Amino acid sequence: MNIEDFDYNLPEELIAQTPKKKRDTSRLMVLNRKTQEIEHKHFYDIIDYLNKGDVLVLNDTKVLPARLIGEKEETKAVIEILLLKNIENDTWECLTKPARRIKEGTIVSFGNGMLKAKCIKVEDEGIRHFELIYEGILYEVLEKLGTMPLPPYIHKTLKDQNRYQTVYAKELGSAAAPTAGLHFTKELMEKIKNKGIIITYVTLHVGLGTFRPVETDNILDHKMHEEFYIMTKETADILNKAKKENRRIISVGTTSTRVLETVKSQNDKFIETSGWTNIFIYPRYEFKAIDGLITNFHLPKSTLIMLVSSLAGREFILKAYKEAVDKQYRFFSFGDAMFIF
User: Fold this and answer.
1) pLDDT digits (tens, 9 = 90+) for 142-180
2) CATH assignment of 3-63+161-340, given 3.40.50.2300, 3.40.1780.10, 1.10.10.10, 3.90.1150.10?
């Protein structure tokens, strides 16, 4: 399966640089897999496509203000690190720029020494392991020193940092937001609950690997990244009951999908569990957990466009993306949404 099969033409001006003023006023493209019809709505219309008894699964991860700019203690050279993954205790995997300046033993200082990062391991592609040295609570230190790690295609400054968090974000640990959830408001979620739709949560801490393009010609040669996930007993029970009663499970975002499909594939049912997933979902994958997906528009040649192509069909997805371009939809993290059912 060739990577070029998942490419499409996107004018740069359609990449959303700022979030909409009100979250749920973004546009919503609705794809009906059975009839192959495409409808154009607004996100607040999502409630019309959800049925009483449906289970909506959201990812409650919270983005760390994980982008830090400091200086090498020895030379005062400016260094940027992005916290990607907590390995254990205060040891973190980080993306480092410029990485060539960072060797084992190098110490980078932030905020006049409020936080220090000592390199303890050197890896490829700009990745370094750092031991973080600070006093107090790490998140409070990051709140003072860090900024939100916006994707590289967003060039404008985000005035309100909370707009890169979902309204239900709770579990700290992501290097990027689960962007499909950015469209929900508390008011819309209340309306959804009042219609008899069950809302439940999983956690998947999003890494930057999610957004990296696939660089191998044959997608099967792509090495998939790992991300940490949690499913609680409460959520597992809700999902198992829905499956037993033949009610729909609709995931909000590819991140929630990765958790649901991982757990169901490994156990043949939903269970209380946590761990690392490197599941790669591409066409010909047989879905075991979800019946529908709320998602954003994804980068060309990314694992995410492969995931949605596996659910809706590659030709249908590429047709929908072309229509989205023609109708001037907004793309990527701060862009518009799609509902596939």
Assistant:
1) 999 999 999 989 999 999 999 999 999 999 999 999 999
2) 3.40.1780.10
